[in-house]
Amino acid sequence: MRTHRWYAATAVALLLSGCGGAPESDSTTGKAAALTKEQVGRTLPDDEVMTGWKQSFQPTAVEMDKLSRWQACPVKGNAGCENSRFFGAATFRRENPFASVTFQVVAYDSEQAAQDAYDVLWDGYYCNQASQTGQRAKTLKLGPIGDEHDARLGTSGFHGEPGAVTQTRVGTTLLWTMESAAHKGDIDEDSVRGLATMLAKRSQQAQNGNEPSAALNG
């Protein structure tokens, strides 16, 4: 059951749980505007703002079509992609310690459409990414980010490789970060939170009609 109006004082808490929803945040004070394809592309981070990381897949935004619906909404009937307009993705890698992260953005035609899709996609697919976070992943509190958010942090694979998945709604957009590494400790709560926060800020800046400028370390 989703808890409303969660406050930053509990931001560092980690709770063992299933896919139950995380709280809504009261941090969003900007507009909820439908983004253009160009704005989605600019919302995605690039090398300039990803200090310590390097692009391995160039930020790309496309109109929502059959292929991008299967990538963003890989559930029965592509549920969750209704009234979506554009899809964007970018992938980066970090060498020391090694890690990779993929960012995804889905832009909807209204805030209501994004809100309606939120639980469909989190409960129906992203929360259950055992290949990314393992069966015993923990719920990670991100802090006052966006209008709604969820995150899972855990380990998978033979050697306990760490991984994390976050989903955030900011106005008319749904946002994801999917992070993985090779060794225990190479991903931590702060890195997961930082990546998700940056992407959420960039989406809000775009919806406010500004050039996205939020950076990983600032």
Produce the secondary structure layout:
Layout lengths: L13 E3 L20 H7 L10 E10 L2 H7 L11 E12 L2 E11 L2 H14 L5 H4 L4 E3 L7 E9 L4 E10 L2 E9 L7 H19 L11
Antiparallel strand pairs: 1-5, 2-3, 3-4, 4-8, 5-6, 6-7, 7-8
Helix pairs in contact: 1-5
Features:
218 residues; alpha+beta; 8-stranded antiparallel beta sheet; disordered N terminus
General description of the model:
By secondary structure, this protein is of the alpha+beta class. The protein contains 5 helices and 8 strands, in the order E-H-E-H-E-E-H-H-E-E-E-E-H. The chain has helices at residues 37-43, 66-72, 111-124, 130-133, 189-207; strands spanning 14-16, 54-63, 84-95, 98-108, 138-140, 148-156, 161-170, 173-181. Strands 1-5-6-7-8-4-3-2 form an 8-stranded antiparallel beta sheet, with helices on both faces. Helix 1 runs antiparallel to helix 5. The termini are far apart.
Main sheet makeup: 8 strands, antiparallel
Indicate the overall shape: globular
Mean pLDDT rating = 85
Low-confidence stretches: 1-17, 22-28
Structural class based on helices, strands and sheet pairing? alpha+beta
Q: Within the largest sheet, what's the order of strands?
A: 1-5-6-7-8-4-3-2
- How many DSSP H or I helices? 5
What percentage of the residues does DSSP assign to strands (E)?
A: 25-35%
Task: Give Rg in angstroms.
Answer: 16 Å
What is the first-to-last residue Cα distance? 33 Å
Order of helices and strands: EHEHEEHHEEEEH
